[in-house]
Design goal:
The chain is α/β, with parallel strands linked by helices. It is built from seven helices and nine strands. Bound molecules: NADP nicotinamide-adenine-dinucleotide phosphate (NAP). The site of NADP nicotinamide-adenine-dinucleotide phosphate has 25 residues, from strand 2, helix 4 and strand 5.
Length: 236
């Protein structure tokens, strides 16, 4: 029988019950990964976990550094290892001219996109280093590199998360662990296509393509890829 790419690996997915998370989880689980699924609300994570063999749901607020570290340490203690962290916490505010953008938008997006990334990496970095083949992946937006002014707060927060990830990649250099960024446009899921069959989603990035890229980055096939932006917005 062919060996599965993530056999025996413990991979945490944050924001797992969002729009992208379930598609990523369904792509990684059949590769043999034991998945730890995190969000703030337990119920949608439990529903997802029953679809995935051995998956473990956990309600953790990643804005709480102590709770985040406790979750990571508990996983490492019980399983003896953590091999991956796919950080999918998301959210959006924007749409107003830059000179009118409310300060609250920045505060919210800074928390969602920057603080959760910092807390998660602080909690997981030593475990990913200990794995010898640890993987950290975030999904970012083209806005980080080419912002539009009505998305200033979102773009700046994504740029900060990207830079933090590249710094983590520098920390990981030579350890066997990697940290990478998948850059996407607006994401389209199968549910969105089904809900609006007539709509043109050709400039969106399909969630299945993102899941494929994440599966690749988590595998040994991407062992040499560290500190890179994998851009999936060719059609945009
Ligand atoms: N959707 C897009 O078009 C798009 C475009 C570009 C980039 N991205 C990025 O792709 C990734 C996935 O996107 P998505 O649309 O699937 O995200 P999402 O649905 O907006 O968010 C994913 C999950 O994050 C969880 N979350 C929020 N705050 C949290 C916290 N403090 N602690 C723990 N969990 C928290 C939420 O669950 P709870 O409410 O239960 O906590 C939510 O279900 C994100 O990083 C996003 O920024 C998305």
């Amino acid at each position: 029988m062919e060996r599965r790419a993530l056999e025996g690996r413990v991979v945490a997915i944050t924001g797992a019950a969002g729009s992208l998370g379930p598609i990523v989880a369904h792509r990684l689980a059949p590769e043999g990964a034991l998945l730890a699924l995190c969000g703030r609300r337990l119920e949608p994570l439990e529903s997802l976990a029953v679809e995935l063999e051995g998956a473990e749901p956990a309600a953790v607020d990643l804005l709480d550094p102590d709770a985040t570290s406790a979750w990571a340490d508990d996983l490492a203690t019980r399983h003896g290892r953590i091999d991956g962290l796919v950080h999918l916490v998301g959210g959006w505010r924007g749409g107003t001219p830059i000179e009118e953008a409310p300060r609250e938008d920045w505060d919210l997006l800074h928390g969602l996109l920057v603080s959760t990334t910092q807390n998660a990496t602080r909690a997981f970095a030593r475990h990913l280093l200990a794995s010898g083949r640890g993987r950290f992946v975030i999904v970012s937006s083209g806005q980080a590199q080419a912002p539009t002014h009505t998305n200033a707060a979102y773009a700046a927060a994504k740029a900060a998360a990207e830079t933090w990830t590249l710094a983590l990649a520098d920390r990981f250099r030579g350890s066997g662990a990697t940290a990478n960024i998948v850059v996407v446009g607006a994401i389209v899921t199968p549910e969105m296509r089904a809900a609006e069959p007539e709509r043109d989603f050709s400039t969106f990035t399909p969630a299945e393509e993102i899941a494929e890229a994440i599966a690749y980055l988590c595998s040994d096939a991407a062992a040499s890829m560290n500190g890179q932006r994998l851009v999936l917005r060719g059609a945009a």
